[in-house]
Every structure is written in C-alpha cells, then in structure tokens.
Amino acid sequence: MSEPAGAESGVRSPDAAARLAALERENADLRRRLDEAAISPGNLAGRSAGSPDVPGRHRSRSAAAVVLIVVGALLAPVGVVAAWAERTLTDTDRYVATVGPLADDPTVQSALAGRMTQAVMTRIDVGSLLDSVAGGLAERDVAPRAAAALPLLEAPLTSGIESFVRRAADRVVTSDEFAGSWERANRVAHEQLVAVMRGSGGDVVQLGQDGQLTVQLAGMIDLLKTRLADGGFQLAANLPTINATFTVLQTPQLVEVRNRYAQVVALGTWLPWVVLLLLGAGVVLAVRHLRALVVAGLALVAGMLVLALGLAVARGLYLDALSGVVLRLDAAEVVFDQLVKFLRAALRTVGVLGLVVALAAYLGGSSPSARGLRAGVGKGFGTARAWAEGRGVTSGPAGVWLARYRGVVRAALIALAALVLLLAANPTPGLVVGTAVGAGLLIALVELLARPQAQPLPQPLPSTRDDAS
C-alpha cells in the first residue's frame, strides 16, 4: 500500500510545484507593477529637480477645487436672478405668463377698477352739470328757490355717479373680455417694454424717472365707457380719451436696468454657464471627485437658500418703501409676488437639483455607509436574479453584455438625464425629481439584468490512485 501512495505523491508533486511557481511569478509581477506605479522615472526626475511631493500636489489641487466651488456657489444666486431678468425682459411668452394672471386676482381687479373709476370721475364735472341745469331752469322762469337748491345736490349726485361707475368698472374687470384684453395689451406692451429698456420710449408701457413701470389703461377705460353708455349713462359716451396709467412696479433699480439693458441680457445669458463651468472644474480638479460633487451640490443648495432669504428681505423692503406712496399696498404686494413667481420656481429647481446631485454622488462614493448600501442592494439583486434563473427566467447573452459594460451604460443614462434637464425649456423641481427617479430606476434595472458570465469550474488534480491500485 505504501507504493501506490508514493506513486501518487510522485505524480502530484511536479504539478503542485508548477502551480506554486506560477503563483510566485504572478506575485512578483504584481509587486513590480506596484513599485512602478509608486515610483516612476518621471516622479524620480521631478523630485530630483526639487518639485513638490505627491501630498503637496494633492493639497494644491484640493485648495484650487475649493476656491472654484466656492466662487461658483457664490455666483449661483446672481446667475439665477440674471437669467430670470433676461428671460422676463426678452421673452414675450414668459412676460405674458408672468403678468397675465394678475387680471384674475381679486385684489388687482379691485385696484384696477378703482383706478379706472378715479380716471373717469376726474372727467365728469358734476358742478358744471348742475350749473348748466340751473341756467336752463332760470331761462324757463322756474322758481329761484329750486335753482338755489341744486348746489346742495352736488355731493350726493357725485357719490351716486361714482358708485354707478365703480359698479360698472367692477363688472368690466371681472369679465372674460377684460382678461383677454389684458393679455393682448400686455403682449403688445412687452415689445414696448423692450423699447423702453433700450431708451426709445413707448405708448403702452412707460418707465418714469423714479423707476415707475406703468401700463396705459386708455383701451380698458374705453371699454368701461362703452359699458356705462350701454347702462344708460350717455354722458360717458361724450367723454374724451382718458390716458390713465396703472403702476405695475416701482423701484429705482428699473432705471439702472434700463441704463444697462445690454449688460443684463449678456449676464443672464452667460453667467449660469460660467457657474456650471466653475463647479464642474472644481469637481474635476479635486482629488476625490465624488466627494467634491457632494460639496458642489450642497453648495448650490446653500446658495439657493441665501437667494430665498434675500428675496424675502427684498420683498419687505420694497413694500416698506411703497407704504404711504401707493393707495393699494395690498395690490403692490400681489404684483410683486406674481412678478417673482418664476424666480422662486427657478431657485427651487436649482436647489432640488443640488440635492439630487449631492445624493447621487454620496450613493456612488466610497464612504462605509454608501459601500454598505450598494453591497446590500447588489446582494438583493443577486438573490432575485438567482431566484429567477432557478425558475428558467434569465437575461441571457444581453445580461452578460450588460454585466461587461454596465459602467458605460450607467454613464450613458446619467448623461441622458443631464441632457434632458439642460434642454428643458422650463425646468421645474418636479422635472428634476422625476428625471432623477427615472434614471435611478433604469440604473437599478440594468443592475438587476446584468448577469455575470459563468466562470469555469476548477479542474480536479489528476490522480493515479486507480492506476496504482
């Protein structure tokens, strides 16, 4: 029995020795590669010339990345405001979408009705009307006592006429015809607003020296006069054209915008891209890209929080400045909120985008929690895949292809999601979240379908036991 054992040992020893020698050669090759990566001839030459060491270069890169990300985050609120101002000034559809809903707001309707009533009443001289009536009575030998009593009717008659005009104005501003007229007037007015900003003036939209942005109400007052005449107040039909205005916005900064219109347009067009380039350059330059991407996303969120706070402060300062200047402060409040509606939507969109980017970078990072989460998800996908394959359901060769190129597929899906957001005409927080969720689900589907190629089973060592026996 010892001879077969010895024979078996003698057969296996050369094979084991060959395997051991192959492992030693592979180990030596790996050590050589690590040594070459750690100390290359270029590094040795750089060090001999007095160049900084690797940690020093890392510190320089990290410092430059921090500077770029901080500058980009500081410019982000300015970029959002500039883009909003440029879009509002140059895009007629955006301008109409901004001021159009004001025609349906009860507070603004009340202010417009009051302004039109005031404008009409300034052209109706009740005292002159009573004087003419008194003259007619005198010509007809009416008792002097009756003529003398007419001036006493001036106050109640004026109040009655004003109430009648106000009721008609209220019906006008709440009608569908007025809403359409308001939208059409503002569409035409936007072209003249651009003319005002360029310094050539306008008839419908006017910009005062103190920054009052006003809209002409002549066409709407003509509609009111028609309604008054149809209601039996024929005197309104004889009134001349009334050039009254309604103040949309009043701030000295509008004069500065008019003086620097071209610069505002250029700033709103290019500054957002400059912000993206600064943040992207900071991420690329950083030593740890995903960690820098987390910081850049959170920096965007912080910038949008600062912008939201600044907008709230500006709103309070604006209304305080108008207190005692305008008759309807509540209408000015509604107009301000409506004008900055798209600005608030933009800052929320950018803030949500920053959160999504930071979350995605964290999940793809090297922190223990992220690695543990990815490992748990991968294990769950593996279990689900094994369960399906045990029942004959498999992704086949396509799954093997996905497993081999999953990194490329993930990058393509992320790039496609970024392209959707960049090309969106009006990005919203909902679009950002929906795009992120859709890309995440597609990436999860890729991970589920990716099927690692089956490895060949190790071959057993050759045995001569049977032969020896």
Walk me through what this model shows.
By secondary structure, the protein is an all-alpha fold. It has helices at 2-38, 41-48, 54-90, 92-99, 106-121, 126-139, 144-149, 154-173, 176-197, 218-230, 253-259, 261-285, 289-322, 329-339, 341-363, 368-390, 396-404, 406-423, 429-449, 465-468, and strands at residues 205-207, 212-216, 245-250. Helix content is 76%, strand content 3%. It has a 3-stranded antiparallel sheet with strand order 1-2-3. Strand 1 and strand 2 form a beta hairpin.
Note the main attributes of this structure.
single chain; 469 residues; mainly alpha; 3-stranded antiparallel beta sheet; 20 helices; 76% helix; disordered N terminus
